[in-house]
């Protein structure tokens, strides 16, 4: 029979079952919907009642993991600290601790590889000191203290490395690293410092040669690495390179030869310079500079 155009009789349905309708197998079992096959997503499962999690125990603000305590002291990273702990090189209150995750109190005594450490992060600040500030409160009660210039740098308790009177200018290092302070203030220094000295008159060449050869002042032998006139400056402007960080020694050299020292400016300290550091300003040392100081 023809089912052409204009015929109102219904055509017998030969369409396949629409998507989403379950098929039944010969065994009478239902199969997965076609829609599920297309999307690949399983049917949603009914929500199960989950047991409430136990509340976390509040952390004790006075406790800190031992490896973090060590890392905060600046001696090594937390990962390296774990190695030292496992190796038995760390003591807490006199007892060796090898347990990972061990926590200590901030007032505990921690000994790392033979040295006493504190959890305070080591900070290193370099100042280009101006006139009128001193490192000693006892020197002049009316003078300002250099710590006022770096007070906003960090909360750490900084100390100046060496002394400077109120008339001396130039580079001055601050840190809370007691080992670093000791290293650069002991008499037998290994690092060089360069000072620019302004005198009241021209330095005689014969006196310059005597200074270069070393001299004895008050029974102490003073060694000078280099001394020279500063290029394109009057012969009263002198550059002197020494290992001492004691500015009084620098002054005493020229006073020994009857010169009045008008100004002393430290322009180099253990490889650190005043580059991009205007007078009265400070900056933090870079990681490489810190490494260099430790390796001196």
TrEMBL record:
CDD domains: S4 (cd00165)
GO BP: enzyme-directed rRNA pseudouridine synthesis
Highest taxon of the lineage: Bacteria
Gene Ontology molecular function terms on file: RNA binding; rRNA pseudouridine synthase activity
Domain RNA-binding S4: 64-131
SMART domains per the UniProt record, alphabetical: S4
Keywords: Isomerase, RNA-binding
InterPro entries for this protein: PsdUridine_s_RsuA/RluB/E/F_cat, PsdUridine_synth_cat_dom_sf, PsdUridine_synth_RsuA/RluA, RsuA_PseudoU_synthase, S4_RNA-bd, S4_RNA-bd_sf, TruA/RsuA/RluB/E/F_N
Region feature (Disordered): 1-63
Family statement: Belongs to the pseudouridine synthase RsuA family.
Protein known as: 23S rRNA pseudouridine2605 synthase
Source lineage: Bacteria, Pseudomonadati, Bacteroidota, Flavobacteriia, Flavobacteriales
């Amino acid at each position: 029979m023809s089912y052409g155009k204009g015929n109102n009789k219904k055509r017998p349905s030969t369409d396949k079952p629409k998507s989403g309708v379950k098929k039944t197998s010969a065994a009478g079992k239902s199969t997965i919907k076609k829609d599920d096959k297309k999307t690949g997503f399983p049917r949603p499962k009914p929500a199960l009642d989950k047991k409430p999690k136990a509340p976390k125990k509040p952390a004790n603000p006075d406790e800190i993991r031992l490896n973090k305590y060590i890392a905060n002291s600046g001696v090594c990273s937390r990962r390296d600290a774990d190695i030292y702990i496992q190796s038995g090189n760390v003591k807490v209150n006199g007892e060796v601790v090898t347990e990972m995750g061990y926590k200590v109190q901030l007032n505990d005594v921690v000994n790392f590889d033979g040295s006493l450490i504190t959890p305070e992060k080591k900070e290193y600040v370099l100042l280009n000191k101006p006139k009128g500030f001193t490192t000693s409160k006892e020197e002049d009660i009316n003078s300002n203290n250099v710590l006022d210039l770096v007070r906003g740098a960090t909360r750490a308790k900084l100390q100046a490395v060496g002394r400077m009177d109120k008339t001396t200018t130039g580079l001055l290092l601050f840190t809370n690293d007691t080992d670093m302070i000791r290293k650069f203030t002991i008499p037998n220094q290994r690092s060089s410092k360069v000072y620019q000295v302004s005198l009241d008159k021209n330095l005689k060449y014969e006196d310059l040669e005597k200074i270069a050869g070393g001299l004895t002042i008050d029974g102490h032998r003073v060694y000078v690495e280099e001394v020279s006139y500063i290029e394109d400056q009057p012969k009263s402007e002198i550059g002197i390179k020494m290992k001492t960080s004691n500015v009084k020694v620098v002054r005493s050299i020229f006073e020994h030869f009857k010169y009045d020292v008008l100004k002393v400016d430290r322009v180099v300290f253990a490889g650190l310079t005043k580059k991009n550091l205007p007078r009265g300003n400070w900056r933090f040392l870079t990681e490489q500079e810190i490494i260099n100081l430790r390796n001196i």
